[in-house]
Amino acid sequence: MTEKKTPLHAEHEALGATMTDFGGWMMPLRYTSDLAEHRAVREAAGLFDLSHMGGIAVTGPDAGAFLDHALVGNLSKLRHAGARYTMLCAEDGGVLDDLIVYRTGDDEYFVVANAANAETVLVALLERAAGFDAEVRDISASQALIAVQGPRAAQIVTEVLTEDPENSGGTAFDELRYYASLGMRFGDEAVLVARTGYTGEDGFEVWVATQHAVALWRALLAAGEPHGLVPAGLAARDSLRLEAGMPLYGHELDTTTTPYDAGVGRIVKLDKVSDDGTPVEFVGRAALADRHDDAPERVLVGLRGTGRRPARAGYAVVQRDASDAGSLGSRVGTVTSGAPSPTLGHPVAMAYVTPEVSAEGTELAVDVRGRAEPFVVVPMPFYRRERG
Predict the structure, then answer these.
(1) Per-residue pLDDT tens digits of the chain, which is 388 residues long
(2) Using CB atoms within 10 A of its CB, is residue 361 exposed (0-12), middle (13-18) or buried (19+)?
(3) Helix or strand or coil: residue 135?
(4) Contact 203, 197 (CB under 8 A)
(5) What is the model's pTM?
(6) Span between the terminal Cα atoms of the chain, in Å
């Protein structure tokens, strides 16, 4: 299959990026080094091309009610210009994708899907729209997504974008809250700016018409250079999100996993009701209601390495047998994501383990190529930015 290319593909090549396939798209893995790009985001700012993400517009008088039916969240109650993290689940409660939904008008919403799952999400939403006065449209090809993440992100964005009184809803940029959006302008062009991200830092994601993506990318690079901004690839994005304890579909989330398994059961709104007070029977509700009060079979935990060798996705988590120093011990779980933490200086990992060994402070080990490497259960996120 031929990989798709974002509108910024030539820009990445001109910057010398190492490209890789990701979800059927050719994307920059790194430009210089994973470590340098990671540190730039933590200390200054990084510039990311996220145009591979799926963008789906949902409009019409029943748009909110439809999304309440199709997704696990209570989207009809989302405030104007707000954003919400939610999930699309199957009838059995398994996660088909995790999403961010923006409310862009009274009867207008914008659904952002992971690149590899964009088609799955689109098909599911189209099927679930039956009986609702709502239109579901794939607008991915007309939109590019560029993110500025890091402690200097706000300074950089305001040097390139200007406030748009006609589309701001009366909100100034410096009043923009986390998980909210704002209409701004890039020259004469309208853009949507959201204070969201996937790095654990403050930052902004900018939706811009495809034909203006290159100009915006170049303007942000130029404005950000004096502030220490660098272009950053998928490798840095992955290590940043791991430190921030954020799940990745295909690792912490999949069709065998429910939101409760992943520790985000709070986003499942079993009690949502329609405007007339009738309970909303959303897709997957019955299965998720059954799971709500059940003891979990596995728990997603954070692991801190006390040695030097990192755990990687798929490695076995074991409980050491104190009576047999030569034994790896019995398996109690599986690593879903793991890497050395550039910020913290030691290995970190996420893993699903049995409830009996999920308590904070529990000493475990990971089978790293036949050797039991010591890890301890710790709270997530591993890294939390200082808030001024």
Answers:
(1) 568 999 999 999 999 999 999 999 999 999 999 999 999 999 999 999 999 999 999 999 999 999 999 999 999 999 999 999 999 999 999 999 999 999 999 999 999 999 999 999 999 999 999 999 999 999 999 999 999 999 999 999 999 999 987 776 667 899 999 999 999 999 999 999 999 999 999 999 999 999 999 999 999 999 999 999 999 999 999 999 999 999 999 999 999 999 999 999 999 999 999 888 899 999 999 999 999 988 889 999 999 999 999 999 999 999 977 666 556 889 999 999 999 999 999 999 999 999 999 999 999 999 999 999 999 999 999 999 987 6
(2) exposed
(3) strand
(4) yes
(5) 0.95
(6) 47
Cα separation values, 303 from 356, 359, 377, Å: 15, 11, 5
Task: Report CA-CA distances (Å) from 3 to 155, 281, 321, 351.
Answer: 35, 38, 47, 31
Half-sphere CA count of 49, side-chain side, radius 13 A: 31
DSSP per residue, 151-202 = TTHHHHHHHH-EE-TTTSTT--GGGPPTTBEEEEEETTEEEEEE---SSSS-
- Calculated CA dihedral for residues 261, 263, 266, 270, nearest 10 degrees: 0
Look up residue 292 and give its amino acid: H
Residue 126 belongs to what H/E stretch? helix 118-128
